[in-house]
Structures are given as C-alpha cells and as structure tokens.
# Entry
Amino acid sequence: TAELTARKKQYNYYREKLFNFQDHEVPYLPLGDERIGHFQRGKRFVKEDMVSEGVPCIHYGEMYTHYGPWADNSKSFVTKNLVDKKNLRVASKGDVILVAAGETIEDLGRGTAWLGDENVVIHDACFLYRTSLNPKYVAYFTRTKQFHNQIKKHISSGKISAINSNGLGKVLIPIPAPEVQQRIVSILDRFDTLTNSLTEGLPKEIELRRKQYEYYRDQLLAFPK
# Structure
C-alpha cells in the first residue's frame, strides 16, 4: 500500500511537471480554437437502456469509476435500434471523451482518449473533443492541476456540478511538437501501467500475506503434547 501511494504521488508529480513549459517557447491555444479541435455534446440515454452486448457506449458515471486516460473497448453497450431511434451521438477513434457533470468537482472535465476501432456512443453529460493533437496527450492534460485550475471558474455548482463547452473551450493547452507530445504520452503511459498493476496486484498480495501469517501463527502455537 505504501508503494502504491508513493508511485501515485510520483506519477502526479511528473504529470504536472511534463505539462509545465514555462521555460520553453511553446504556444498555448484554447481548446475551443478551431485550429486544434472542437467539442460536441453527447445525447441522452439511461442506465436501463444498457445491454450486455451491442453498440459500445459510455455512461457519464463510468467516467469516474471505470475509465482511465485511454480506452479501446467499452464496459457497456446499447442496442443498434436505440442508437438509430434516438440518433445518439458517437465518438470515433482518436476523439477525447470528457465528463461534464457529476458530484465530484475535482474530477469534472477528466478525459479519456477513445482508441477503439468501433465508434462509441456517449452520454449527454459528456463531450467528445475531436482534435488534431495527440488524443492521449489531451486526455492526460485534463487530469492535471493546470487544467482544473482553469475550469473551476466555469463550473456551475449545485447538487450536480456541470461545465459546458464554452467553459471547456476557454482552457489554454500547451502545444509542443507532435514528437514531444508522444514522448510525454509514453512516459505517462508507463506510470499509468505501473500504478494500475500495483492496484490490481495488491488484493492478491494482501491475501497471500494473510494466509502466510495465519500459517505461521498456527505453527507457532502448535506445541507438541
């Protein structure tokens, strides 16, 4: 657990540092600038519409609980009939999906780069961001303090907090050369893999240690008659 906490702190530190270009001549542009991308809101569907197989879909609540900086397959699905009937909106490979509503203000606006070959339906509490930038670079940027400090003033608070495309579009993002974007993504991918493997491995490790503890406890207390 201590190892996981340390790695997460290290990961967060380098993520912030890698997006800090103050000492370099790197242009900054608002996300809403048409030269780099544009936003499009998803359309409404409810959890009861989800099925075990069909057209991939992402409900806004899953953005908080399931999805990381990128994904190439979905947890949930809806029927093709529903997609056609409601004319649901889909994100394509290379788009970034951003969550735009929720109870957790700190995670509002976090993005996931969609890398699946099949289009994915997005909920109306999400935006797709179609961009010429590296989609994973954008997704990692949406998880920085630099990004969240900029969107705070554009969030409408209440029982459910939300942000619209105008607010998201005003956020300034550093735009280094494509090869620099890819280098940053590669570094953060390694950190993400490491923290995830630790998270997934911890429950098994704890279970093994408990069994080991119980075994030696029983051995130490098993005195010959």
User: Anything to note?
Assistant: The chain has a mean pLDDT of 92. The CA atoms of residues 122 and 186 lie 27 Å apart.
